[in-house]
Amino acid sequence: MKTEIFKIDPHKIDTEILKYCAGCIRGGGLVCFPTETVYGLGANAFMKNSVSKIFKAKGRPSDNPLIVHISDYEMLDLVTDCTGVQREMMMKIAAKYWPGPLTMIVSRDDAIPETVSCGLSTIGIRYPVNPIARELIKLAGVPVAAPSANLSGKPSPSAASHVIEDLEGKVDIIIDGGSCDVGVESTVLDLTSGKPTILRPGAVTLEQISALYDAEAFDWKGSHAGGEDCDIENPKSPGMKYTHYSPKADVVIYEGNRENVVKIVKSEYQSAVTNGFNAGILTVDENIDFYSDLKNVISLGSVNDPKSQAAELFASLRGFDELGVQKVFAEAVPTGGVGDAVMNRLFRAAGGQIIDCNKKNNNIFGNI
Ligand code: TXA
Ligand code: MG
Description:
CATH class of the largest domain: Alpha Beta
Bound molecules: threonylcarbamoyladenylate, magnesium ion
Oligomer: single chain
CATH superfamily of the largest domain: DHBP synthase
Strand order of the largest sheet: 1-8-2-3-7-4-6-5-9-10-11
């Protein structure tokens, strides 16, 4: 398939081009578009066949449901069938965090085909703030089902070049609207079980939801609890079953105090190089000078700036692929707030490989 690529300035939207893209979605085509989190791979959520094409283009497992994007509250009523407490909670949280990087799981309206939710009676809804995303959905006049626009298992795309790399030839249109501000996918908040529960951490944090309701969150390692090699059959959010975000390189995370981490990361890097591997280091600005004599060192930004780390993470993981790096030695970043989202994605990129550098006698040298 020939993919058309259009560049659109989010601050000066070319409505004619966007109308053309919106027509493609309404008519059943696949359009990749920027959002404030990551790029999405969108289709008309009312059309079962178009939704099925998303799964095919991404190579996405057929039991991993899609979220639906809306551009106003009228559209919300077309996709949800929620009343009472659930509706009340959704609207109160929406008043504060929509439009924005938050997906809420509520009851699905039958107008949305089962294929979108993979047979679940619930549906994830997101009202994005990115102007291109909003205008595209508005012009299409239909809710847009869209997962992240990457091949299944690869890091999510925070720039159009990532989408082109993964999906050119598999979709009708890719809109290049620059890089995504947030850089990691939306917070997924489940409202169907009484207590609001964060299934996937993101830019809207547990602390923020907790200010409105008694809420809880899966541990940032939680999403890995259902990794592919794990036998949990029915994780609450089906996407959690799958190992995600993996670059080609093998990633291992090192946590502990700064001195121990730097020392062990350096020695692990050096022994990998001695063994003939192309190695790389994922670090923070404060530590980068410790590695000034080494190759393939990428910083996520300041250790105290989780927003910058989130914005840089996926591009950094793809950057290691471009450098042909086979082993990535990654420093852990502080958790809490948006840091949970960063560590959650990094942990999954590492397939759960994390080493405590403060533990005496940790037998890491055999594990790498
Ligand atoms: O920021 C984002 O959320 C991006 C942009 C494009 O909006 N989209 C995105 O979609 O990350 P995706 O499909 O890559 O991730 C959606 C996650 C998956 O882990 C999926 O399993 C979960 O949300 N999910 C979707 N519908 C669900 C439902 N009804 N119940 C539980 N989990 C659901
Ligand atoms: Mg995804």
